[in-house]
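Exercise: predict the fold of this chain.
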Amino acid sequence: GKEVTTSRAKRTDQLKVCFDVMRNPIAKAGKKEIVLRIISPKGDALSVESMGSGVFTHGDTGEQMKYTTKATIDYQNQSENYCMYWEQNSPFEKGNYTAEIYNEGYLIGSGAFSIK
């Protein structure tokens, strides 16, 4: 039950992706649906429909894209840190991953990490 950081695939039970949402006085405050795509070393989005994954429409291209998980945040026009978790029903592969964060179908941030 204790959260421990590791970079080893065989010891990885879940991924924790944290990100900052910046202050934006122009944006409307309120509930925002945040979509997380975790891209595997093979280039596919980690996605298990029975575990909350699904499809969203990309705001720029109109393309239907798989997402890993989503969450609703209560954005109040202030800088704040949020974390999302992903635990899948199969082992994580070794390699380089990319995490992409979307709001209203638009990419608002991304980052990369490795699992050995």
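Check your answer against the key: The two ends are 23 Å apart (CA to CA).
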